[in-house]
User: Fold Spermidine/putrescine transport system permease protein from Gemmobacter megaterium.
Amino acid sequence: MTGGRLFKIYAIAYLVFLYAPIMLLPIFAFNDGTIISFPLQGFTTKWFEAMFGNATLHKAVKNSLIIASSSAVLATCLGIFTARAVTRYNFPAKGGIVGLVMLPLVLPEIIVAVSLFGVLLGLGIPLSIWTVILGHVLICTPYTVAILNSAFQSLDRSLEEAAYDLGESRWSTFRLIILPLVAPGIVSSLLISFTISLDEFIIAFFLAGTEPTLPVYIFSQFRFPQAVPVIMALGTLLVLLSIVLLAVAEYFRRRGIAKSGGKDTGGFL
Assistant:
């Protein structure tokens, strides 16, 4: 058997292993039985109806949307300032500071969650959706910095210098010239941060207090077998939402690179 054939078999097996569980979600979401097993019992949409009529689920979704939206905006703002500073200026301990900003990328989330939990309790800060936002901003900011670094690095600096020559201030140049050019990267950063925050479980589990987020709610429902089909229906919608958000983020990322004349070195999709 040739190496190319082995690689093809490996690639197919890998894709099946990766995506087969996801493909099972809609199958069991429309299955009439409450037990997740074959053979299927028949076609139904009652699990989706039960999902839309669940008040506790609605509250969890509302909390998650507030957290994800706030985290995405705050993390992207921090990412803009950080990426601008890193790509435009030299300052003491630049490498060390950037390393600290990017550190949450390599730290286990359980360590981040436990550390934040201890610090917040020690300071007497009550756990709520705002403490979850704090944790999610911490883990989302490195992703926004990575995305926006690429956007800022691909800018043509001569455009900025031309604006200065024409009498524009630094702030007006940043607002009128630089921000529009990196706008696709900003949109991509917002969408990626929103997706990461919406799906995150560990930090939300430790810091949410009595305000459940969507992943925490899903985890709690697996104790009740009759609720599992509803979770399958919910999971189907979440997968579709995640695919749409990632596709839109990738579109804006590539659009930003093409707009600035940079080179695409890889992306999310």
User: Anything to note?
Assistant: Residues 55-260 form a domain with the MetI-like fold fold (CATH 1.10.3720.10). The two ends are 31 Å apart (CA to CA).
